[in-house]
Design a protein that fits this description.
Helix content: over 70%
Radius of gyration: 15 Å
Number of domains: 1
Structural class: mainly alpha
Order of helices and strands: HHHHH
Length: 90
Amino acid sequence: MELNTLKRIPKDLTLVILFTLLCILFVLIPPLNEMPIRIILCLPLVLFLPGYALIATLFPRKDDLDAIERIALSFGLSIAITPLLGLALN
């Protein structure tokens, strides 16, 4: 990947990617996947981050939506997207 491409990724989506990688580590590594912190880390991955990534893609500028609207839409879309992704993967 070019360095220019990495500079164009917004910081909030970079945090989403890093948080997802952290959750993957806590799910796949055997000593870590038995810890209760895995549940605390993975709940936002299921209930918030899919919707937030979609909202950040649809409304990339910060002045498009207020913070409260962005958070509310993120939770709602995550609850709608996650079962659909589960059906598609099944």
